[in-house]
Specification:
Blueprint lengths: L1 H15 L2 H19 L16 H31 L2 H5 L6 H31 L7 H25 L3 H19 L10 H7 L3 H13 L6 H21 L4
């Protein structure tokens, strides 16, 4: 435990020394929300949205964007880089196991994503009057599942691509479809019903629906939570089966 704590402490210092990565994980989603919120039309109630505003829909979207940036863009290159440079292989000959380093990276990127999510919720509330989630417990459950799904997808990407450049390619293949499924380009709630039903089978499409339901004060549908949890389990299985230390 002391060795793992030491690794986590050292990795934390390295993590905060990466301003570019921190910007995309923590700052960028909230900046995007701020830009969208400054558009007057996005702050007007819309009958097509059940009286809600576009900026209300984009708070859960920016929350998912933070998770995607952390899990799919930031985490895989770090894991692949450690393996590519032989750091994991060398650690296997020391009392500190490579799993301690990988666990530290997952904890740090998960914490960064959750911090970014809370920042987006806070800015949405204070700057644009977006209501806080009506069902806090349901929102927390959906957020944790979505975070685990994003990190599991990042670990799976790192297991499928053996080099840092490879993770960039594989990550991009997953990145843009997941952005679409999360509603970054167009909120899921305004998409055609048929497309919404298709996206509900994707991890971030289901998570988007679950977060939106909790935002409106309802407990997220079991199907949406179940799809997110199922994807998490599947991606964890892929990561475990395919990951190589060398």
């Amino acid at each position: 435990m002391s060795a793992s704590a030491a690794v986590l402490k050292a990795e934390s210092r390295l993590f905060v020394r990466e301003p570019v990565s921190l910007f995309w994980i923590v700052a960028f989603p909230t900046i995007l929300l701020t830009i969208l919120g400054l558009i007057p039309a996005f702050r007007e109630n819309s009958p097509d949205l059940g009286g809600r505003r576009v900026v209300d829909l984009y708070v859960p979207v920016t929350v998912l964007l933070a998770l995607i940036m952390s899990g799919l863009q930031a985490l895989p290159p770090v894991l692949a880089g450690y393996r590519e440079r032989g750091i994991l292989r060398r650690m296997s000959t020391t009392p500190v196991r490579p799993a301690s380093l990988l666990g530290a990276q997952i904890v740090l990127h998960g914490a960064g994503a959750l911090g970014a999510a809370l920042l987006a919720i806070l800015v949405g509330r204070l700057a644009f009057g977006v209501a806080l989630p009506g069902h806090l417990l349901g929102y927390a459950v959906a957020l944790v599942l979505a975070t685990l799904s994003a990190l599991a997808m990042g670990a799976a990407i790192a297991s499928l691509a053996r080099t840092t450049k490879g993770t960039a390619v594989v990550g991009s293949i997953f990145f843009f479809p997941m952005m679409f499924a999360a509603g970054v380009y167009v909120p899921v709630q305004v998409m055609p019903d048929a497309l919404q039903r298709v996206l509900e089978f994707s991890p971030f499409g289901a998570a988007s629906q679950a977060l939106d339901e909790a935002s409106r004060g309802d407990w997220p549908e079991t199907a949406h939570l179940g799809v997110t949890a199922l994807w998490t389990a599947l991606l964890v299985w892929v990561a475990i089966r395919r990951f190589r230390w060398e």
